[in-house]
Structure formats: structure tokens, C-alpha cells
Amino acid sequence: MTGIIFTKVDNGYSGALDYNELFFYAKGIPGVGPVWYSTDVPLYDKQAMADLIKEQQLKRIVVAGDTPGMVKPFLTGAMVIAGNNPEDVVLASFREYGATDNTKIDRAKGILFCIALGVTFAEAALPEETDVQPDTLVIGGGIAGIQASLEIANGNQKVYLVERTGTLGGHMAMFDKTFPTLDCAACILTPKMVEVGQHPNIEILTYSEVKGVTGEPGNYKVKILNKARRVDLATCIGCGICTEKCPAKAPSEFDNGTTLRKAIYIPFPQAVPNKYLIDADSCTYVLKGKCGVCVKVCPVEGCIDLDAKDQEMEITVGNIIVATGFKPFDAGKIERFGYGKYPQVITSLELERLINAAGPTEGNIHFRSQDKKGNWIFSVESGMPKSFAIIHCVGSRDENYNKYCSRVCCMYSLKLAHLIKEKLEDADVFEYYIDMRAFGKGYEEFYERIENEGIHIVRGRTAKIEERNGRLMVRSEDILNDQLIEQEVDMVVLSIGLEPREDAAELAEMLGISTEEEGWFTEANYNTDPVNTFVGGITIAGVCQGPKDIPDAVAQGSAAAARVLQSIVKGKIKKSIKDMPLEKIEEKAKQFSNSMEGKS
Amino acid sequence: MKEMSQYGMGTWNACFHCGNCTAVCSLTEEGILFPRKEIRALQMGLEDKLATSVEPWLCYYCGDCTETCPRDANPGELMMSVRRWLTAKYDWTGLAGLFYKSLSALIIAFVLVAIGIVAMGFVKDFNSEAVMYFGHILEFYLILTVFTIILIPNILRMFYFTVIKAKVNAPFGSYIAAIGNLITHMFTQVKTLKCDKQTVRWLEHFLLVMGYLGLLVITVFLDWFGTENQIIIYMGYITGGLVFVFTFLLMISRLSKARELNKYSQPTDWFFIIWLFLMGFTAFLVRLFIDIDLLNDHFWIYMVHLIVVSQWGMLLVPFGKWTHFLYRSFAVSFANLKKAALIKKLATAA
Ligand SMILES: Cc1cc2nc3c(=O)[nH]c(=O)nc-3n(C[C@H](O)[C@H](O)[C@H](O)COP(=O)(O)OP(=O)(O)OC[C@H]3O[C@@H](n4cnc5c(N)ncnc54)[C@H](O)[C@@H]3O)c2cc1C
Ligand code: SF4
Ligand code: SF4
Ligand code: SF4
Ligand code: SF4
Asked: What fold characterizes domain B103-342?
């Protein structure tokens, strides 16, 4: 007889699996005798457990739960004492097969059923195959999406690359250099962007969004909204005269609001496509019905159409890769740090733009100041700070905001400290960290290198920032030196963490894929299937799956492309695990289990 | 240190030593670092280190650290638990620890005191004059004994732990200064004002302490219940009123648990507030009944008052939360010694 033990973890998450329901389901599985919660059995007392096993005449034990592996060693010991085979303690891990919350309770039941009958879930729930359309949709034109598009296009397959903003590049395009190699970010990224822009197999749809997905694995119909750029991509020659004359201004998205741009603009000089566009929210003509200066000065007739309307298109694809990246944490949420209150408290992303030679201050670090109209911007006219504090883990590793570690901020903070020193040799730079996470190849060496550049690296989380003597006072405990420090500096840099996009849940619902508690997209298997989802033909790549750095995002982009190419070459694609109804899984598991018994 | 969880709640294992709490606290300064270091000592089981630290007494439980702790480790409540534990450590009789750990022991003690008072009343035939005379003498001697036999030895023990055993080597002059700030501090608790957003709480606290001390002086030394002096009678009403009004407000705020620090009240904390309230309220009633000539018919009200006062004086003052007030005032002085010692050390090192 088989016994089932549930290891229930109560993490207080309201959408968690309903263990009571699973408990009763388990009792009805053929061949299953006693069903317990781990708290009801003497788990840690091998002798008592062995006695229970004998008394109940158990031959197999299934341990079921989120991470059931933890208690297995105790049970194998008890099985040996009871005279059974220790191999007959088997695990039914709900998480491993993506039954992470209660909407997937049927999958959890399927897992239980299969394991109880001695069949692996993957075997019984293996989805059937179906024909695949050769074209692919990539959503998101950051480094991960760019990489995936190139891999597929270079395999001679057609790719539609949908990007919400006016240019490809994502966050990486904003940086000056990347850790740990301190390579110039643009030198790596721009050639790739240009290659995408010129590739005959890639159709770039910028300023566009996915509005609806119907169909099934291998054959998806996707509705795409092409927002009006109001500048014709084919004929715009990128001369920039329109921008020069345009009277309307708005904060620049690409520069993270560190400066203003015109209503007709190009996000940055190396943008792909290298064409201008009009922001309807700030254009005087769109808002007030009169202006049209740009049309008058534009040298190409008919290039600017101020009345252009948004358009919709529909495409058919076999595979979809989601690479929508992240949203930076909103530093204003933490009042004690005074972001938004003290102008010289800035975010890491703002500093990236200041340091970038193509940024608002020509690559030099200046104070934030008010322009004539009262907008807070960075300009070369204001002075330069001489001392800096860089604060780690802003919004990350904090029960009050995001519990998880954002994984890149330790390293980019070190990078920024180095870049500050490069620009301002005499500057004092203080870094405040909780733990220094230098986990990648060459990262520990990078840390050591920066430490030796005369940067003061302090172990202690900054608790508050206040104005003092016209400067900023940063209060922290210096744990390793057993001190309390109140450091006065000119500028504070908040190393903000990474968060899922606002629309991640909406997109997930449209595609039928799932998100985790924190909002990142869920992969089919964390260890062995990191880019697939439970929906056939939909893969995920880059930070949208969880915080990671550029090398990892690129690796995932390639991995997702491999999955897509595999299906195209084969001409067949697997349907979704999630589409398998419970009865079907049960039926298949019974078949498998009967045939196994027949053999032995 | 499993024992600590009997003095409060135990989530401090979650702490990952980021130092946020120490830095966010408005009361920490160079050389006086808490609460992270106390959590460290606790996690590592360094009982001696904890027993010899004054820092827990310097915390006023504003709750800033708990609110901003990234691990929900609740450092503020931990400081409160350590204070309870220290109270038990300092107390040579061992009763403070017993009462914190066992609610039933505390209740049994309360009942015994009540029976004692009722028995005394019985012996005196519930003759109001005799009983009230006895009550007056009892209060007087109670204060004397509690101070000499329990509180003073316990403060000496505290001094031994936090200054001598902790090897604080302060210059002589700083001892004299320490006595000065002990006195200001004891009455005003002015340090709380250093905490952000604490002014209202401080004022409440200050008026309550003043009311309590006033009531004590007026009933015990000025014989409020026996006097004919109009000024004393009115003063008594004012102080008695202050005590029960403010304790009442305190109870309401605890119940609504609006403030961070009120989230985890211990049964002993409740006893403290309720008894303070009852003392003020019954004293007020007794005098009122005297003034409108009702006391002889309603003598039970004095009996209740006496029971409450005795329980307060015999149990809550020497072994309960009342001592926190005392230890805290001394702690400020001892911490100043520690700071003076640190300055001296730095000076000799330089
Ligand atoms: C301040 C800072 C410094 C950093 N420095 C480094 C470094 O030095 N080295 C390093 O390795 N990593 C660094 N990183 C991490 C790095 O930014 C990421 O690893 C990388 O950008 C991930 O790329 P991605 O393509 O996954 O996402 P993103 O760069 O976020 O790109 C996603 C793209 O998808 C688009 N998009 C989003 N939603 C939609 C939608 N619904 N429809 C269409 N398009 C959409 C976005 O517009 C964007 O273009 C840093 C991060 C920060 C915050
Ligand atoms: S219409 Fe006027 S405001 Fe609008 S983009 Fe052209 S120049 Fe700028
Ligand atoms: S990578 Fe570093 S700074 Fe970022 S959340 Fe993790 S520990 Fe904090
Ligand atoms: S803030 Fe919390 S986690 Fe950080 S040291 Fe204090 S108790 Fe520990
Ligand atoms: S509760 Fe307030 S006073 Fe006490 S340690 Fe925390 S921050 Fe400091």
C-alpha cells in the first residue's frame, strides 16, 4: 500500500494551493491507504516512523508539497528500519511542475495521481504535438529581444519584433559602460541594433503594442496596435530640423527625465529605426489644434502627417517570445531617502545618463537645478558635486517593498563608483551595502579592483537621509567598524532595484502564461526548462522572467530562439501542459502504470 | 536563548544585520549603538553581554526601527523583551522573572494580597476609621520597605552589571554629573523628545508621571482622605483625575493599536495600565464619597481602593513594569558614564 504525506508550508500567500482539497483528493487515488500531514506523523523520530510504516503495511511513501525533498532523508531512514526499500520514498513536487498556486490545483492533483501510481508526471502529461506556423513574434526590443530576434532571423526565419517605445535597445541603451568588463555599452549594443534594423527577415514594429492573442500553440493570431508616429518611417531623413524649431517640450523618457526633449524628437542619436516621431501628449498641434511648425520646416514633403491615426494589424505566428524586461523601482516610495524632496538625491538610472557622453550633461556629473521655467533638470550650467554616497538595495531585500534581491545593483553600484572616480578623480565616494553580491564570472575580481580604487565601501544599510549644512547627511551603522556614521555628501545615488512591468499581469493573461507572487513570468521548470512556459509556443527571455544582468539576458534570448528554431525545423510543436484535463492525465497514468506492471 | 521568547515575541532570528535599525533610531549616538548589537548578542547566545548592557533602557520604543526593518524582525519589540528580561536579571528575589513568565503566579499573588486586605478589614470589623488608619500606615511602610529591601538593592545590582561588570572606567567627575542628570531625567523623561514625532506621547507621559507622583505625595504624605485643607483636597482631585484620564486614553490607544509600539502588548503591560487607572479612579471616588458623606454607607469602595493600592505597591511596583521607569532613569546616567569612559579612552589613546 502507498501512503501520502503532505508537507504543508504556510507562507501566508492567499492564492496558495488548497491543501485540504488535495488531502481529500489524495484519499481517493487507487492504491493509496493513509494520507497525513507531516505534522501528524513522527517525522523526525525514525524508529517511531518505522513502527508506523509497519503498522500501516506501507510499501511506498509519497511526500507531496512545494519542496518535499527536505524531509525525504528522515523517511528513507525509517523505511530501511521498517525493512523496505529506501527507493520507495518518492517526491511529488508541485512547484517543479508549476503547480504554484490554487488556479493550478488540477495540475497538482495530476502530479499527485501520477506519482502515487509510480508514473512520472512528465510522462503522463506529455502534451501532444501539432503543426507550427514558421513566423515568430518577439515582444520587447531590449537586449534579450534583440538577441532572440537575430538568432532566429539568422536561421532564415521571419521575425516580427514589437517594441513599445520609439526605439530598440531597452535599458542597456541608456548605460555608458557595463560591468564587469567596463565595455562601452553602445559599442556592443549599437551594432546589434543596426543589424536588426537592416535584417531582411526582421520586421520591426516600434511604437507598437500587442493588443490581443487568439488561436493555439503553433498558430497564434496576434492583434498589434501601431501607434501613430506621425512621421513617415520610409521618407524621414533624420535631419533634425523639425526638432530644432518645435516649440513644445516634455521630460525625456530615454534620459529618465534628467532633461527635456521636444515634442517631435528622436529618443537618442543611435536609435533604431533612426527616425523621428511625435509625442501626442506634448505636441501643441495635437493638444491645441494649431502649430504645424515642423511640417513647414521639414524638407521632405508629406513626411510629417500631424493627423495620422493609430492603426491595427493582425499577424499569424507559430511561436511568441516575451522579452519585456523590467521597470525600475520608484525611489519616491521610500520617504526616508528624500527622493523628490532633496534635488541632489538621484537614482542610479539618472546617474547612468549623466555619465553617458550622449546624455544631458555631455558625460559630466552636475547638480540637478531648475531651468528658467522651473523644471528640475541636469545641465552643464550648474556646479559639480565632490562627494557621493551610493546606497544599495533601494526597494530590494525589504519586506516593506520587494523581498527579493535585484541581483544587478551591487555590481552596477561598483561600476558607478568607478565611473564617478573616472570623471572626478578627487571625489569621495561612499558605498553602503548589506551584503556584496558578486556572483558572476569576474565579478569578485571586479569588486576587489574597485575597492582598491579608494572607494569607501561601508557595510551597513543607510536608514535615513537628511539635509544638513546645505548638504545631505547619510546616517548608517558601520557594522564592521562598530561605529555610527553621519556622512555629509553633495549627492546621493539610490541603487534602485528591478520590478516587473506594470502591464506584466495583463500581458500574461492575454498570453495565458502565469506570473509569480512578485509578478515575474513563470518558467516551466526553474532548473531544467528556464525559458519555456506552460503554454505551448510561448517562451520568455531576459529580466521579465526575473532579475538578471545583460550576459544572462542574452543567454536566455539565445535559448528561447533555440526552442523556436527547434519547432520550426521539426515542423511540429508541443501543445500546452496546462491544456491537459485532469481526467486525461489520470487515464494516461493508469495506462502507463498497467503496462509497467505487465512488464515486471 | 529560548528563554527570551517568554518575555516577549521571538522574530529576531530573521535579522540579517543590515544596521538599519541602529541608524534609523533617533537615540543612538557614537558609542551607544542599539538595537542591532543586542540582537547579535541574542542570536549568538551571549547572555553576559546582554546582561551588562544599558542600551536597552535607552530605547523609548518609538517603533521607527520596527517600521523600517527590512526583515520584519521587530527590533523595537525585541528591545522591550530584553528590558523585561533585564528586570528579572536585576531583581534579587527572582519574583520579577516568575511573574513575567507565569501569568498564573501573578494572578495567585494578586488574589493572596486581596484576601489579606479583606481579612484585615474583617479583623477590624470594617470600622471605617480603624481600617483607614491602618491603610494609611500600611501605605507608608510599604513605600519604605519596597524601596529599601527591593528597589535599592536592585539598582545596585544594575549598577554592578552595567558599570562594574561591563568594565566601564569612567572619570570621577562624570559620576557627579551623572547624578544631576538622573534627577532631571527621572521627572521629565526628556530624552523621548529626541525621537521624531514623539511630542504628544511625551506630554501624555509627562502628565501621567506628574499625576502619579502628585497622587502619591498627596495621599500618603499629606493624608488626602483625612485632611480638611481645601487646597490639598483640590490638588488630590486634580492629580487623581490626571491619572485616570490619561490611563484611560492610553488604554483606548492600546486597544485600537494605532501606533506601531502598541501592537504587541503583554499581559503584564495591561496589569500596569489597568491598575494605575483603578488607583486613580478609586482614590477619586473615595474622596468624593467622603465629601458628599456617602463613604460610611459605601465603605466597600475604600476596601477596593486599598486592595488595588496594596497589589500595586506589593507586586507591580517592585516586580512589574513600574521598575522600568526607575531603571531607565538610572540607565541614562550609566550610559553617560560609559560615554565619559569612551572619551577618556580615546583621549589616553591619542
Ligand atoms: C541602473 C542600472 C544599471 C545596470 N547596469 C548593468 C551593467 O552594467 N551590466 C549588466 O550586465 N547589466 C546591467 N543592468 C541590468 C540590465 O539593465 C538588464 O540586465 C538588461 O537591460 C535586461 O534586458 P531586457 O531585454 O531583459 O529588458 P529591458 O532592457 O527592460 O528591455 C525590454 C524592452 O521591452 C519593451 N517592452 C516592455 N513591455 C513591452 C510591451 N508590453 N510591448 C512591447 N514592448 C515592450 C521595453 O520598451 C524595452 O525596450 C543595469 C540595470 C540598471 C537598472
Ligand atoms: S506640430 Fe508643433 S508642437 Fe507638434 S511636433 Fe510639430 S512643431 Fe512640435
Ligand atoms: S544585488 Fe546587491 S544591491 Fe541589489 S538587491 Fe541584491 S544585495 Fe541589494
Ligand atoms: S533593521 Fe532589522 S534586519 Fe536590519 S539589523 Fe535591525 S533588526 Fe536586523
Ligand atoms: S524603538 Fe525607537 S528608540 Fe527604540 S531602538 Fe527602535 S528606533 Fe530606537
From this structure: Fumarate Reductase Cytochrome B subunit (1.20.950)
